[in-house]
Specification:
The complex is a heterotrimer.
Chain A (H helix, E strand, L loop, with lengths): L5 H5 L17 H11 L9 H12 L4 H11 L3 H8 L13 E6 L2 H4 L3 H12 L12 E6 L11 E3 L2 E2 L5 H13 L25 H26 L6
Parallel strand pairs in A: 1-2
Antiparallel strand pairs in A: 1-3, 3-4
Helix pairs in contact in A: 2-3, 3-4, 4-5
Chain B lengths: L21 H6 L4 H8 L2 H11 L11 H6 L8 E6 L8 H8 L1 H15 L3 E6 L4 H17 L15 E5 L9 H8 L24 E5 H5 L1 H7 L1 H5 L2 E2 L2 E2 L1 E8 L5 E6 L5 H6 L13 E5 L19 H6 L8 E6 L4 H15 L5 H18 L6 H13 L15 H26 L6
Parallel strand pairs in B: 1-2, 1-4, 2-3, 7-10
Antiparallel strand pairs in B: 5-6, 7-8, 9-10
Chain C lengths: L1 H7 L23 E4 L6 E4 L11 E2 L3 H16 L15 H9 L17 E2 L4 E3 L9 H9 L5 E4 L6 E4 L10 H7 L5 E3 L12 E6 L8 E7 L2 E7 L12 H5 L1 H4 L9 E4 L2 E4 L2 H19 L4 E5 L5 H15 L4 E2 L8 H6 L5 H5 L3 E5 L3 H4 L1 H12 L4 E6 L11 E4 L5 H9 L11 H11 L4 E5 L8 H14 L4 E4 L6 H6 L6 E2 L3 E2 H12 L10 H13 L4 H5 L6 E5 L3 H4 L3 H10 L2 E6 L4 H5 L2 E4 L8 E4 L4 E5 L12 H11 L9 H11 L8 H5 L7 E2 L45 H13 L30 E6 L7 H4 L2 H4 L7 E3 L1 H7 L6 E5 L4 E8 L7 E5 L21 E6 L1
Parallel strand pairs in C: 14-15, 14-23, 16-17, 16-19, 17-18, 19-20, 23-24, 24-25, 29-33, 30-32
Antiparallel strand pairs in C: 1-2, 1-3, 4-5, 5-8, 6-7, 9-10, 10-11, 12-13, 12-25, 21-22, 26-27, 27-28, 29-34, 30-33, 31-32, 31-34
Helix pairs in contact in C: 2-3, 4-5, 8-24, 9-24, 9-25, 14-16, 19-22
The chains are: A alpha+beta, B alpha/beta, C alpha/beta.
The complex binds flavin mononucleotide, iron/sulfur cluster (SF4) and FE2/S2 (inorganic) cluster.
The site of flavin mononucleotide has 22 residues of chain B, from strand 4.
Chain lengths: 236, 434, 881
């Protein structure tokens, strides 16, 4: 078993000069969003994983600087942030490509040719699973079950399902990704959700109230229409 | 063949392409269950759920009503929804989250009302990016609609819901690991006792953890009554249930079936369900309830899809996922892949699971590649025995959670059912199916 | 927990992750036993199962045995089995348990997990991840016990490893504990690595005297060199933990720079001479001083590094033979001795179980680390509420319910407001937190930890505040944090002006000690400051002897294992004081500035080279073990006093360290009743609190639990605990001897004569007046650091590297006002001195207060050059450069 940990590669921790890596701190905007996220939880540390996702949305991966910032935001040590983040497959403590292509090889996909697909992908991208292409665009991952087993072998790009793939369709997919054709559908790596929370007892009550009133009217009308359209369908 | 015409309880809306929108939801009776529940007392709502005999859909099959009754009285309590769905070949919650997020939210609100919890969290597997977006937009709309937040529908009941993304770790499906993860820690399952988060859960407060599908049943149960739900199915296995069918079938997919009425054979072979084994091949074996479950052979195909029936036959209905393997499947390879899954997903706390999973995986890989020794079979079983003493079902365990003792399921099944195949691998130095 | 109960009952259940001083996590699964339940017996981790009446537990069934074998085998799957080159080999629980419980042969053919072989995770600790068995003891220690999660598990499952965050080494002061509790050789200490094999090590039990907490230690050596110190679990004190300074300080004892011969200055050079010649030279100097200027012209500074026996012998020599009361074990960096001895003392346990702990002291983590550890742990576990009164934030601040800042000089004002019925909240303190602090201070069970928050503030000011607390909070008890080694013991033995052995004042004990010693000084003597000032006055007026005539000069100064030039707060005064002293005798174990100045140098034994006793901050008496033979001609400190007395023609009547103890027990009132039998009995394993409530006291029963070899791997077997120090230097008295001793005690008049009154309650002290400072001037706070330039650190290579630079910490608003930014250099100018320092912002400081580490290198000179002890606080201006 090879050592894939970031710490193993970094060698002796005492030798690296502090402050040598550039950038990577959370931007003012990200910090602002992070604060709002922390507000959702009874305890700040609960926001750790959402904050790691936010940091990845900013940089594509979790930079050491971002981890230090997160540590400060939630009140734990950087080592605890790294320790926690490195437990999770989706949190990358080393740079990844703009597109992370995950091929599931678990049982349902294996039964449907996933091993062969992965082998093809490795050859075609000239990387082993876990590696990033030399142009830095794509990172290939061998994934565990992604819960899309009726479309096996299952493939995700940046955690967006792209349906069952054959070696041929996979080549096309890669070409499209490289050409930027799928930009609308698949945001750069790290953007977990493009929908922001709005609403909630913890957000501005006045805004919620007025929105609510407006929506109530619309909804009442729509519901009225809908009911007359489809009759008593739904429920039982 | 008994495929009943029981109503679709959680998948009724899926025939609409826009089933995930508030518009469609309201048009199809959405939030009526919540409105009705808010006119009842919380206890009355809980009573309906208890009467429904709604067995948890997350894997353990514990009755939701009983779990709710165990919630310790406390000024602060929490409800946490388990949407981590990572058990291999299980993909039913995926469907519910992406295609009917409002139904989930309504169910959560009903439960939150019945339990009078302080706050509710919906934990969704991080890899469900679209699902996360769908649930978050649905939640935003629900806030705007007045279905969640302060003074819901003018009832005086207020609750905040938070969608919490996971980050990729199977073990976070185990409820105590999920709580740890929700607290911003690594997903280490908590040591028992306490056996239930209902005593000590999130932040140490009493907490109910329920699966996405369990929650999604609630609007129907409230609207139609617990008895109507209990009238479906057989015995304890009441209502309908989602079965995720995958593997070598013509029509893999998620099917909602009345519990314990339909058999595995129906699910795999019925033309409107699995449609039979692909390429006209024969069924070699199937996994009845997620890869943690021991395998069944073709001779057990007539077992009904009921919790107690499957348990009595020595396996479990688990997460409701069925994987069919055809006669060209290498059992060694399949079992190896499942072992590899556990080796990658062991949280790493317990020695037997952490080291055992990796060791077993390496032995299995060696056999599969043709470097096996005859002694390896006994070694495999003995090492398995050290994780799940006695190799009984349900398993005993030397570990904190049941991931560890799930490892022997596949290895034990494969050796028990296909010992010859192992021997061929060993004798011929390779896979006969390759 | 079952595992501990079984152990008490004599059944040892194997284990790896369980540690009696940390919360059970039940992850290694080695301790599985069969426990009966409603659904029949099942395997449960005995470290996590509560003991229940009537529960059926089987610890040795085949099923248990198989599960334990299985766990061991699993642990070896990835273990490198590099035992021959592993420091842990020979005392490794994995090795031992494999032998005892493990399978006979290996069944692995698979390749193992590989990691880069040991990587340094700090200057002191190396990590070999291949050997790690993921028991999480080290990571739990870091977060749960030390409160600094600088190491954590990284990764998941089989790939899990312990590590630090990149570029953030494991700098915790407590890092060495992780090495001690690691059950395998995954964590090793740089100083110990490859120095010895466990079976070559020989052990005695002792007490660490690096600071005044007095942690119990196992001192292990090989070939007359200390190879390592391991913490011993003593319930009331250290719970088995040590700080890294204490753990690694032994390197100094092994040092190559030790003084081995008596030295006498001849023609300007120190030359080795015989003991006789050196002592003779000292005796002649003493006699000359006494006849020329009176006994009071002899002074002694230091004593905090002596054993109680040494301190007693020197006190007897000074006060009973030479006739001077000018002796001071404190170096101007403590608190007035009579205040300390007079306050009702709290134990550490009383502090950790109090309702409120008021901390009026410096940063406890820097000064008395294990006290910090205990207090932090208690507070983090919902124990006492902490009210901190300090000019700056400390490591304890995050755990304090209220942390109130004050300007140097204003401690009494703050305390006064806090306890006055209508005391107003100081500026910047919200009404709410002020009220909370006031409520807490008024709690039933209050312990006050009192020390020196700043060395640039007169100790009398803090003592005054402490006495104010004592007078207003009648039930409060006090834990004095005088930092240095055995300083508490030295004061107890009378090494302070106005004191006699046994916590007695010169006045109260005069008649009694005259009876037993023959004589005591007539007048109260001078403290360190006054002695140095007298020396300095002579230096300043070397030509003009008339100027010095006003006060008694300091004609002979004996420096007892102390280094006033680095520890006295005012370095210029210390320098001039030494220069001006007529004749300087250094009792020392290694060279240093005092030795360079000395006229005679008497080489002394160090820690681990002499038996005896020590008394910690709580007043807990515990024994010191001798492990090494002192180098060359070095003598134990008590013997030097005895021989010097002989050269003065007096017989101190002390022929062995045991004799000294017997006399202390007999004569020092607070120590009455603590005979050698008591001290060496197994019941005194945890030390004895002084004074005993009565002579006939029933000592607390010994903890029943035998030593768990995995709780403290490497500490030799349990039987050693409570046994007398080895090497036969203090013999365990036989019953017959005991009776003889008793007779001797009576004969010596122990129970005749009226015992003098123990010091108790407030004493009058002179409290200097502090005028308010003007708008432009700052007050200086000089704080202590664990790793500083003091001799305890600089003689230890492993620790010397850890000394940090010392910037001046200033409130950011003050920095803005000056127009300087972080990292800029400024000039700090007092009335008499100036220095250039780098500044950094520290929002925890009040305005117009600036803090700097004392005794850490400055670009030029040291902070002690800026302090002028003739002023109660140090005021200065900051100038931009
Ligand atoms: C290893 C392991 C993984 C699990 N994964 C999931 C999961 O992905 N989703 C889920 O709902 N329950 C999962 N469970 C079951 C949960 O622990 C818990 O029983 C369930 O969420 C309770 O909900 P229910 O009562 O509604 O089924 C898992 C259990 C184990 C031991
Ligand atoms: S059995 Fe495995 S997954 Fe479960 S807690 Fe133990 S190590 Fe973690
Ligand atoms: S599980 Fe009990 S000692 Fe580790």
């Amino acid at each position: 078993m090879t050592d894939r940990s970031p710490a193993a590669r970094r060698g002796t921790p005492l030798q690296a000069a502090p402050g040598t890596s550039k950038g990577g701190h959370l931007s003012t905007e990200t910090v602002e969003r992070a604060r709002r996220t922390i507000d959702l939880y009874p305890e700040a540390r609960s926001a750790l994983i959402p904050l790691c996702h936010l940091a990845q949305e900013q940089d594509g991966w979790l930079t050491p600087e971002a981890m230090s910032d997160i540590a400060e935001l939630v009140g734990i040590t950087p080592a605890e942030v790294l320790g926690t983040a490195s437990f999770y497959d989706m949190l990358h403590t080393e740079p990844v490509g703009r597109y992370v292509v995950s091929i599931c090889t678990n049982i349902a996909c294996q039964l449907n040719g996933a091993d062969e697909l992965l082998e093809h992908a490795q050859e075609m991208l000239a990387v082993n699973a876990g590696g990033t292409t030399s142009d830095g665009e794509l990172t290939l991952e061998e994934a565990e079950c992604l819960a899309d087993c009726d479309r096996a072998p299952c493939v995700q790009v940046n955690h967006r399902f792209v349906g069952a793939q054959t070696p041929e369709s996979f080549d096309r997919l890669v070409a499209e990704l490289r050409a930027g054709d799928r930009r609308d559908e698949i945001p750069p790596h790290g953007t977990l959700t493009r929908v922001r929370r709005d609403g909630g007892i913890r957000t501005d009550p006045a805004r919620v109230a007025s929105e609510r009133a407006a929506m109530a009217q619309v909804q009442a009308r729509r519901a009225e229409e809908a009911r007359s359209d489809v009759g008593g369908k739904g429920g039982a | 063949m008994t495929i009943t015409d029981a109503p679709k309880i959680v998948t009724a809306r899926l025939e609409h392409d826009d089933s995930h929108t508030l518009e469609c939801y309201l048009a199809t009776g959405g939030y009526d269950g919540l409105r009705k529940a808010l006119t009842m007392t919380p206890e009355a709502v809980a009573h309906e759920v208890d009467a429904a005999s709604l067995l948890g859909r997350g894997g353990a099959g514990f009755p939701a009503g009983r779990k709710w009754a165990m919630l310790r009285k406390n000024p602060v309590t929490y409800l946490v929804v388990n949407g981590d769905e990572s058990e291999p070949a299980t993909f039913k919650d995926h469907l519910l989250v992406e295609r009917d997020p409002h139904q989930l939210i309504e169910g959560v609100l009903i439960a939150a009302y019945a339990l009078q919890v302080t706050r509710a969290f919906i934990f969704i597997r991080g890899e469900f990016a679209l699902g996360l977006e769908r649930v978050q937009s649905a939640l935003n709309d629900a806030y705007a609609h007045g279905a969640v937040g302060s003074d819901i529908f003018g009832s005086g009941f207020s609750i905040d819901l938070v969608v919490h993304p996971g980050a990729g770790a199977y073990i976070c499906g185990e409820e105590t690991a999920l709580l740890e993860s929700l607290e911003g820690k690594r997903g280490f399952p908590r040591i028992k006792p306490p056996y239930f988060p209902a005593a000590i859960g999130l932040y140490g407060e009493p907490t109910v953890v329920n699966n996405v599908e369990t929650m999604s049943n609630l609007p129907w149960i409230v609207l139609n009554g617990g008895d109507a739900f209990a009238a479906l199915g057989v015995g304890r296995s009441a209502g309908t249930r989602l079965f995720a069918l995958a593997g070598h079938v013509n029509r893999p997919g998620v099917y909602e079936l009345e519990m314990a009425k339909t058999t595995f054979g129906d699910l795999i072979n019925a033309p409107i369900l699995g449609g039979g084994i692909r390429h006209g091949r024969e069924l070699k074996a199937f996994i009845p309830g997620g890869v943690s479950a021991p395998w069944f052979g073709p001779d057990q195909i007539d077992l009904p899809l009921g919790q107690d029936e499957v348990a009595a036959a020595g396996s479990m209905l688990g997460s409701g996922s069925v994987v069919a393997m055809d006669d060209q499947t290498c059992a060694v390879r399949a079992a190896w892949r499942i072992t590899k899954f556990f080796a990658r997903e062991s949280c790493g706390q317990c020695t037997p699971c952490r080291e055992g999973s990796g060791w077993l995986e390496r032995i299995m890989a060696r056999i599969e590649r043709g470097h096996g020794r005859r002694v390896d079979l006994d070694l495999l079983l003995d090492a398995c025995d050290n994780i799940a003493p006695g190799l009984t079902w349900p398993p005993q365990q030397t570990t904190i959670c049941v991931l560890g003792p799930s490892i022997p399921s596949s290895i034990g099944s494969a050796i028990a059912m296909f010992r010859d195949e192992f021997l061929v691998h060993i004798k011929d130095g390779g896979c006969p199916f390759a | 927990m079952l595992i501990a109960a079984a152990e008490r009952a004599g059944t040892f259940i194997p284990r790896f992750c369980y540690h009696p001083r940390m919360k059970s996590v039940g992850v290694c699964r080695m301790c599985l036993v069969e426990v009966g339940g409603p659904r029949g017996p099942s395997l449960q981790p005995s470290c996590f199962v509560e003991v229940q009446d009537g529960a059926e537990v089987v610890t040795t069934s085949d099923k248990v045995k198989k599960a334990q074998d299985g766990v061991l085998e699993f642990l070896l799957v990835n273990h490198p089995l590099d035992c021959p080159v592993c420091d842990k080999g020979g005392e490794c629980p994995l090795q031992d348990q494999t032998l005892a419980y493990g399978p006979g042969e290996t069944r692995f053919v698979e390749e193992k997990r590989h990691f880069e072989k040991p990587i340094p995770i700090s200057e002191l600790v190396l990590l070999d991840r291949e050997r790690c068995i993921q028991c999480s003891r080290c990571t739990r220690f870091a977060s749960e016990v030390a409160g600094e999660a600088q190491i954590d598990f990284i990764g998941r499952g089989e790939l899990i490893e312990v590590n630090t965050f990149p570029d953030l080494p494991f700098t915790s002061y407590f890092s060495g504990n992780t090495v001690q509790i690691c059950p395998v050789g995954a964590l090793t200490a740089t100083p110990y690595r490859f120095t010895a094999r466990p079976w070559d090590l020989d052990q005695v039990e002792s007490t660490c005297t690096t600071c005044s907490v007095g942690c119990r230690v196992a001192v292990q050596s090989s070939a007359n060199r200390v190879t390592r110190l391991l913490g011993i679990d003593v319930d009331p004190v250290n719970h088995g933990w040590l700080c890294d300074k204490g753990r690694f300080a032994y390197e100094a004892v092994n040092g190559t720079d030790r003084l081995t011969d008596p030295l006498v200055r001849k023609d300007g050079d120190l030359v080795p001479v015989s003991w006789h010649e050196a002592l003779d030279a000292v005796a002649r100097a003493l006699e000359a001083s006494r006849s020329k200027h009176g006994s009071g012209s002899v002074g002694m500074i230091g004593g905090g590094r002596l054993t109680n026996e040494g301190a007693y012998a020197w006190a007897k020599l000074a006060k009973g033979v030479i006739g001077t009361d000018s002796v001071d074990a404190q170096l101007g960096d403590g608190l007035p001795a009579k205040v300390v001895l007079g306050l009702p003392t709290a134990t550490i346990d009383q502090a950790t179980s109090a309702d409120t702990v008021i901390v009026l002291a410096g940063d406890l983590r820097e000064e008395v680390p294990i006290l910090f550890l205990r207090l932090r742990g208690a507070a983090a576990d919902g124990g006492p509420s902490i009210v901190e009164l300090a000019p700056h934030s400390t490591a304890l601040t995050p755990y304090a319910t209220a942390s109130l800042r004050y300007q140097p000089g204003e401690a009494s004002a703050l305390v006064g407001a806090l306890i006055a019925p209508d005391g107003a909240a100081p500026d910047g303190v919200s009404e709410e937190s002020w009220q909370r602090a006031r409520d807490l201070v008024g709690a039933d069970n209050v312990v006050v930890v009192v020390g020196r928050p700043s060395l640039a503030e007169d100790g009398a000011l803090v003592a005054d505040a402490a006495q104010l607390l004592a007078s207003r909070l009648p039930g409060a008890r006090f834990l004095p944090v005088l930092r240095r080694g055995n300083v508490r013991g030295a004061l107890d033995m009378g090494l302070g002006p106005g004191l006699l052995p046994g916590r007695v004042t010169l006045e109260a004990g005069r008649a009694y000690f005259v009876e037993h010693w023959g004589s005591v000084p007539d007048e109260e003597g001078r403290d360190t400051s006054a002695m140095l000032a007298a020396g300095a006055a002579a230096a300043d007026s070397a030509a003009d002897s008339a100027a010095a005539a006003g006060s008694q000069p300091l004609d002979t100064l004996i420096v007892l294992g102390a280094d006033p030039l680095s520890d006295f707060p005012d370095r210029r005064l210390a320098r001039r004081g030494l220069d001006g002293a007529g004749f300087v005798v250094a009792v020392a174990s290694a060279p240093g500035e005092v030795v360079e100045r000395a006229d005679v140098v008497l080489p002394a034994a160090e820690a681990h080279e002499r038996p005896g006793t020590t008394t910690n901050i709580e007043g807990r008496l515990s024994r010191l073990g001798q492990k090494l033979v002192p180098p060359g001609q070095a003598w134990p400190d008590w013997m030097i006093a005895v021989e010097l007395a002989a050269h003065l023609g007096e017989d101190l009547g002390l022929d062995s360290v045991a004799d000294v103890w017997d006399e202390i027990e007999c004569l020092a009132p607070a120590y009455r009743g603590i005979t050698r039998q008591v001290l060496e009995s197994p019941t005194a394993t945890d030390g004895v609190l002084v004074p005993l409530p009565s002579v006939e006291v029933a000592l607390p029963p010994r903890r029943a639990a035998p030593l768990d070899p995995i709780a403290f791997p490497g500490v030799e077997s349990v039987e050693r605990q409570g046994a007398p120090p080895r090497a036969g230097l203090v013999e365990m008295p036989t019953a017959a001897q005991g009776a003889e001793d008793e007779a001797g005690r009576l004969a010596a008049g122990g129970d005749t004569g009226r015992a003098p009154v123990l010091l108790a309650g407030p004493v009058e002290i002179a409290v200097p007046h502090v005028a308010p400072n003007d708008r432009y001037s700052f007050r200086l706070v000089a704080t202590r650091r664990l790793y500083d330039r003091g001799s305890a650190v600089s003689r230890v290579p492993a620790l010397g590297a850890l000394v940090q630079p010392a910037p001046l910490r200033v409130n950011p608003h003050d920095l803005d006002g000056l127009g300087v930014t972080s990292g800029a250099s400024v000039r700090l100018r007092t009335a008499t001195a100036s220095a250039v320092l780098e500044v950094v912002p520290d929002p925890s400081l009040p305005r117009q207060v600036a803090a700097v580490d004392f005794n850490v290198e400055l670009p030029e000179g040291t902070v002690a050059d800026l302090v002028d002890v003739s002023h109660p606080v140090v005021e200065f201006r900051l100038e931009t450069l």
